Amino acid sequence: MSQKIMFSLAFLFLLASCNDSGSKDKKTADTAVASHDDMHHEMPAGSAVPALPAIPEGAKVFFKNLKNGQNVSSPLKIEMGTEVIKVDTAGPVVAGSGHHHLLVDVADPIAEGTVVAKDSTHIHFGKGQTETELKLSPGKHTLTLQFADGLHRSYGSKLSSMITVNVKK
After folding, report:
1. What is the rounded CA–CA span in Å between residue 166 and residue 68?
2. Residue 125 burial by CB count (10 A; 0-12/13-18/19+): exposed, middle or buried?
3. At residue 53, what are phi and psi to the nearest 5 degrees?
4. 67 has which bridge partners?
5. Other C-beta atoms within 10 Å of 151: how many?
6. What is the distance between the terminal CA atoms of the chain, rounded to a whole angstrom?
7. What are the tens digits of pLDDT across the range 92-102?
8. Residue 150: how many CA atoms within 13 Å on its side-chain side?
């Protein structure tokens, strides 16, 4: 394999690795931005990057406890739901599964196949979490659930849900 391909694969895995292999039972997010060096899921050497799994028919993601335009207080409890597709931890790519990402004040869903960034506006739930608490400043905020595969590659707009909330002072 050429050095360019090896470097590209290593870079992809470095970007994709943001699960600290902790317990899947923890339901709330650790919203601190962790270093990718602290993460521990890798593909064996020489493994090819698997294709993005197909989205099962009827699969969707949604906010279980929030509605578009809702007035809320901070900190805000967020419950994330799915239908037809299974919530799993980051790491292996398993057909019919993935995990949540929460995009805060991001204009559009992440394009299909694109690795979701990890920063203060792109929050990862690679331990399979389905709820979190989020502190937001007063005013209008856009929240987007973005589902992705085990390597944090977005399933695109087909598995995203966007709402706006109004945080009271």
Report:
1. 9
2. buried
3. -60, 150
4. none
5. 23
6. 57
7. 999 999 999 99
8. 19
Whether residue 105 is predicted with pLDDT greater than 70 in this model: the reply is yes
Q: Which residue has the tokens 């608490």?
A: 133
In sequence order, the 6+-apart residues with CB closer than 8 A to the CB of 81 are: 61, 62, 63, 64, 130
Secondary structure, 3-state, the chain: CCHHHHHHHHHHHHHHCCCCCCCCCCCCCCCCCCCHHHCCCCCCCCCCCCCCCCCCCCCEEEECCCCCCEEECCCEEEEEEEECCEECCCCCCCCCEEEEEEEECCCCCCCCCCECCCECCEEECCCCCCEEEECCCCEEEEEEEEEECCCCEECHHHHEEEEEEEECC
- Share above pLDDT 90 across residues of the chain, in percent, rounded to a whole number: 70
Euclidean distance between CA atoms 158 and 60, whole angstroms: 7
